[in-house]
Structures are given as structure tokens and as C-alpha cells.
Amino acid sequence: MKYLSKFDFLFNKEDSEAIDSLEAYYKDGVFERGFIQNYTYKRLKDFWEKHLKLKKDVINLITKYFMWSVNLKEKQFDKLFLENFGFQCCKLCEKKMLEINNISNPDV
């Protein structure tokens, strides 16, 4: 199952495209020949659906923990602070920062 989770990006692909992609890995020895026929593609899609839900839940929990641990709801970080920790502003944050700067310094 740990190998199957690496192919979760195939969940939203067309069935034939996903099967062709998986069959390419037979050559690498990741899967045995006939794996999809034995396991069935429907069960594989069900596995990926559950896996993606768990993955999303984990990302949300980690994000909430991070926000809690740095008290993010009460702090505003400047760009230099983020860069010191290897982070960068997303496009939405940059847009908000520009709007805030324009409001506080309309002549600039």
C-alpha cells in the first residue's frame, strides 16, 4: 500500500491513462504483472480516495498546529522575517501587503 500512495496523483486522471501509467512501473518491479486485474481498478480508486482524504486531514492538522505554535492569528509577519525562516509570501499575502501599504502611504 505504501507504493500505491505514491501514485495518488493518478486519482483524477482518466482510467485508461492511469492504468497505462501504472503498467509502466511493471518494468521497474514496483508492481507485479496483473496487479490491476487482481486488485481491481475500482478498489485502487477507493484506496486513493481514502488516502487523499487522510493526506488532506494531516496537512490541515499540521497547519493548525503551526498556526497555534507561532500564534499566527495574532501576529503579522514581515517579508524579511519569513525569508529568514525559508518562507515566502504567497500571491494573496503579497497582494494584501501592497493594499495595506497603499492605504497607510497613499502618496508613495
What's the domain count? 2
- Describe the sheet with the most strands: none
Q: How many helical stretches?
A: 6
Q: How much is the average pLDDT?
A: 78
pLDDT < 50 stretches = none
Order of helices and strands: HHHHHH
Features:
0% strand, mainly alpha, 108 residues
Written description of the protein model:
The protein is mostly helical and 108 residues long. The protein folds into two domains: 2-73, no CATH class; 76-108, no CATH class. The chain has six helices and no strands. It has helices at 2-5, 15-24, 35-39, 41-69, 79-84, 91-104.
Summarize the structure.
The protein is an all-alpha fold and 108 residues long. It contains 6 helices and no strands.
Question: Topology, please?
Answer:
Blueprint (H helix, E strand, L loop, with lengths): L1 H4 L9 H10 L10 H5 L1 H29 L9 H6 L6 H14 L4
